[in-house]
Specification:
The structure is a single chain. This protein has helices spanning 19-29, 34-40, 45-53, 61-74, 79-87, 122-126, 133-141, 196-205, 210-220; strands at residues 116-120, 145-153, 174-176, 181-186, 194-195, 232-238. By secondary structure, the protein is of the alpha+beta class. Strands 1, 2, 3, 4, 5 and 6 form a six-stranded antiparallel β-sheet that branches. Helix 1 (19-29) runs parallel beside helix 4 (61-74). The chain is globular.
């Protein structure tokens, strides 16, 4: 049974959906959200929405087809494992001359209030989450505060969820996933967060590897085990009062 649409929102009739949207529909019927699908193909959730509204997604059909087969025939439900399956079947666009097309990315956007957000999924994590480096650098330039959320297997954390020795010490900022991973947030506007300039220096020391810089901070502060592996990372910024 397909998921129910939001009240007042018109859904595109199934007969008008392109192949990418049809595959996304089947994955949603299997219990995945658009955000899950975006993580699996390592793209922004807005792109998945554009499967429906702008008929995009043709380049992801092979990957989504393999992912759906893995879900339906092998019973695989962990997004990280599905992302690895998808990554093999995602190829870059080419130009008319046959060369690799440049990836269109959003410019680093920090609002006048200092608010900015950047996320890295499985594939980006593997390459050091370098897409987050410009956001951190700009936050440092503007003297902003910074917080981050990491996701990793529960066994990677030293302290139990909700521990005040860890951060933030309240369970509402801890999200436990069905695949035995857990999201924990570090820093907030309430606690003051971290100096973006300090995080930027750590990233520079790690030769631009944002994943390693954050992981090493968590190891140095006794929050995760030395062999822990971050699977997802989110950076948030704001202007101090």
């Amino acid at each position: 049974m397909p998921p129910r649409s939001r009240r007042g929102r018109r859904r595109t009739p199934a007969r008008e959906l392109n192949e990418a949207a049809q595959l996304a529909e089947q994955l949603q019927a299997a219990g995945f959200t658009k955000r899950d699908i975006a993580r699996i193909i390592d793209r922004d959730p807005s792109l998945v929405s554009q499967f429906y509204t702008r008929h995009k997604g043709a380049a992801f059909v092979p990957a989504l087809t393999r992912v759906l087969a893995a879900v339906q025939t092998a019973g695989i439900t962990e997004t990280d494992e599905l992302a690895r399956i998808a990554a093999v079947h995602i190829t870059r666009r080419t130009t008319a001359a046959g060369t690799r097309a440049r990836v269109r990315t959003k410019a680093v956007l920090i609002t006048p209030t200092g608010t900015g957000t950047g996320r890295a999924g499985v594939a980006a994590i593997a390459s050091g989450s370098t897409r987050l480096r410009p956001l951190i650098a700009e936050a440092a330039r503007q003297g902003l505060r910074l917080a981050f959320t990491v996701r990793m297997p529960k066994t990677g954390y030293v302290h139990p969820s909700g521990s005040r020795t860890d951060s933030p010490g309240i369970r509402r900022d801890v999200i436990q996933r069905a695949d035995h991973t857990e999201e924990r947030s570090y820093g907030s506007a309430v606690t003051g967060g971290f100096d973006a300039a300090d995080i930027a220096r750590r990233v520079d020391a790690a030769r631009g590897d944002v994943t390693e810089a954050i992981r090493q901070w968590l190891v140095d502060t006794g929050r995760i085990n030395a062999d822990a592996h971050i699977t997802h990372l989110e950076i948030r910024t704001w202007r101090p009062r």
